[in-house]
Amino acid sequence: MRIDKKLNLVIPVETESKGTVFVHSVPLRRDVFEKYFLIISKTFAAIYAEGLNAIVGPRIAYLMLKKIAQDAEVWDVKGGIQEGLIAEINRTTTVVASGQKGWDMQMLSDAIYNSTFSEDELDEIQGAIVFFICASAIHKRDQLAEVLGVMEGLWATSSTLLNCTEYRDYLQKSTQTEPLMPAEKKLVPYEEQKQLEDQQPMKPSSIAY
What we know:
The protein is α+β, with helices and mostly antiparallel strands. It contains eight helices and five strands, in the order E-E-H-H-H-E-E-H-H-H-E-H-H.
């Protein structure tokens, strides 16, 4: 399957405080990848060198990134990985949750500050996102589609061409006439996303690595 645009990741999470929420993550911009390419590449290589790949990688990717950054003494220093790369990921990752007036959006950083997730929930989210970030940055696009397919089967994630606002609108429309189904039943099929995109005017897009 040929992928002409970068796929985004959606992670359904059953939370104790908000019920089912959807975490929407996007690949890194080119300039962010260029700034942190060495740590990202080392994390990616370490995951695959240990034979973890998409089966176990989404569970431990954040921990692997943290270990590699700590070994290089760039994790919690000023301008380091925690303050730079992780903060950027948290800023560009969106949490979509059902509210009194429909589906609300907030940055992952705000959701963490507001204690939306338990520690276990956050561990799973961060692991899946870091694995996705590394895979998106390093894999060729056709390879990435296969890797994300494995994640979908094992971790109930979803690949989407929709940005966070479009995905929020999709959820809004799909739940107006029917109750919210279990998370794995509510993910947007790739074919449906492509049809939605083809119906919209072509928009310029920046290349993110």
